[in-house]
């Protein structure tokens, strides 16, 4: 088999590929130096490791049998075209517990008004006891709160585990009813989950059915609640999110996934066309939920294990249901 890597390779990834080369000397591992060289390898690749593939590239990949996504999201792939070819797609969740840690950190930061108070104190502006103990200076504890987690994959389950130490009462939203550790209530009704939680974590995959699932109406039903998004930006209506925050319908938000991203033409890029970043009740983060050493090694290890299974003639783990897109 020929395995083509169309993803950024850090040193640890390269080290693990060298190990695979030793284990499977009769297989080829292509690491292109640039985009032009990558295009030359696509027609002979049996396996492509990537999170982003165009339909035109897929059409050139005549021998392609497997796509291994080195993270969870598969929204960068031409799903319908892949389905027609019966190509197996496998993703991984090796950094899920790290993303969950970021989600909880965002919740603690926005509820604790950490960034807001840091910015004020850096200007000599005090809050709390030293400023006259004003009621409007209270911050909010997460302990004992009712929490809803939308999406109970690896990230959502890990959020629930972390929150168990805060004695939170947790409701999880998922497609089917089943027992989940640290989750007291399960619902298949997203509106029930939204009504339940004082803090709402969004950890859903981005699919046709979840695109814009948190629409303006649902946002405006979240009066006094905190919203934490570590799923994808497009799960939440962008305009609705801005005005729900600006008008203090939402108590606050912690956001790691966005609507606009930097590219070759715009190295400096605000994350939304609305000035969400200017609001005091928001903590923003540049989509770095899994960007730790542990997060990187976790997803790489799982990617390598999937390759090892394929090269051994077995099925990879975490085969994506292409109809559900996760």
UniProtKB/TrEMBL annotation:
Domain D-isomer specific 2-hydroxyacid dehydrogenase catalytic: residue ranges: 45-320
Identification of the protein by name: D-isomer specific 2-hydroxyacid dehydrogenase NAD-binding
Entry's Gene Ontology molecular function annotations: glyoxylate reductase (NADPH) activity; hydroxypyruvate reductase [NAD(P)H] activity; NAD binding
Keyword NAD among UniProt keywords: yes
CDD domains: 2-Hacid_dh_6
Gene Ontology CC entries for this record: cytosol
PANTHER family reported for this sequence: 2-HYDROXYACID DEHYDROGENASE YGL185C-RELATED, 2-HYDROXYACID DEHYDROGENASE-RELATED
Keywords, ordered alphabetically: NAD, Oxidoreductase
Similarity comment: Belongs to the D-isomer specific 2-hydroxyacid dehydrogenase family.
Organism: Fervidobacterium nodosum (strain ATCC 35602 / DSM 5306 / Rt17-B1)
InterPro entries: D-isomer_2-hydroxyacid_DH, D-isomer_2_OHA_DH_cat_dom, D-isomer_DH_NAD-bd, NAD(P)-bd_dom_sf
One Pfam family matching this protein: 2-Hacid_dh
Record domain D-isomer specific 2-hydroxyacid dehydrogenase NAD-binding: where: 104-289
């Amino acid at each position: 088999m020929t395995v083509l890597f169309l993803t950024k390779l850090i040193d640890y990834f390269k080290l693990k590929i060298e190990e695979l080369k030793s284990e499977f000397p009769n297989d080829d591992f292509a690491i292109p130096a640039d985009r032009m060289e990558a295009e030359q390898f696509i027609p002979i690749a049996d396996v492509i490791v990537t999170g982003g593939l165009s339909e035109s590239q897929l059409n050139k990949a005549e021998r392609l049998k497997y796509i291994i996504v080195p993270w969870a999201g598969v929204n960068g792939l031409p799903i319908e075209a892949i389905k027609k070819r019966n190509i197996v797609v496998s993703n991984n969740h090796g950094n899920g517990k790290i993303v969950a840690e970021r989600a909880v950190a965002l919740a603690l930061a926005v509820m604790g008004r950490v960034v807001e108070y840091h910015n004020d104190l850096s200007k000599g502006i005090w809050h709390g006891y030293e400023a006259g103990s004003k009621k409007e200076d209270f911050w909010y504890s997460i302990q004992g709160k009712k929490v809803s987690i939308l999406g109970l994959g690896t990230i959502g389950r890990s959020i629930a585990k972390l929150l168990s130490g805060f004695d939170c009462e947790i409701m999880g939203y998922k497609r089917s009813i089943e027992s989940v550790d640290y989750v007291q209530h399960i619902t298949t009704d997203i509106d029930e989950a939204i009504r339940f939680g004082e803090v709402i974590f969004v950890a859903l995959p981005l699919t046709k059915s979840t695109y814009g699932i948190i629409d303006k109406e649902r946002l405006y039903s979240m009066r006094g609640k905190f919203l934490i998004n570590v799923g994808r930006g497009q799960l939440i209506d962008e305009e609705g999110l801005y005005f729900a925050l600006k008008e203090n319908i939402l108590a606050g938000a912690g956001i790691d996934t966005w609507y606009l991203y930097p590219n070759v033409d715009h190295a400096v890029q605000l994350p939304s066309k609305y000035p969400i970043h200017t609001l005091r009740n928001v903590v923003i983060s540049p989509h770095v939920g899994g960007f730790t050493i542990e997060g990187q090694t976790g997803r790489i290890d799982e990617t390598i294990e999937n390759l090892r299974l394929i090269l051994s003639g077995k099925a990879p783990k975490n085969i994506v249901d292409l109809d559900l897109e996760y």
